[in-house]
Sequence to fold (87 residues):
Amino acid sequence: MLTALALPCAATLWVAFTRDRSASALAELAIYTVLVVAYFFLVLSFLPNWLKHLFDQDKLVYALVAWALIAVQGVVLETLHLNESSR
Fold:
């Protein structure tokens, strides 16, 4: 599920990287990498017990919350990408 939503962003970055192999494309890729890894560890640090409880109690709610977390991450990264590309 995560891979399916992350592929369009990764594909967009790869196209930008191959089209323009400048330092800014590499910097953008590095920034996204740091943000995604930081988001991953923040979710694992602050939400593991709550997510485990949701998973045990109601799988539908767990799936919706997991989807929402992924969607929010995508929106934030896309907003950063749009802000960076408009400069």
User: Anything to note?
Assistant: The chain is about 90% helix and 0% strand. Confidence is low (pLDDT under 50) at residues 1-5.
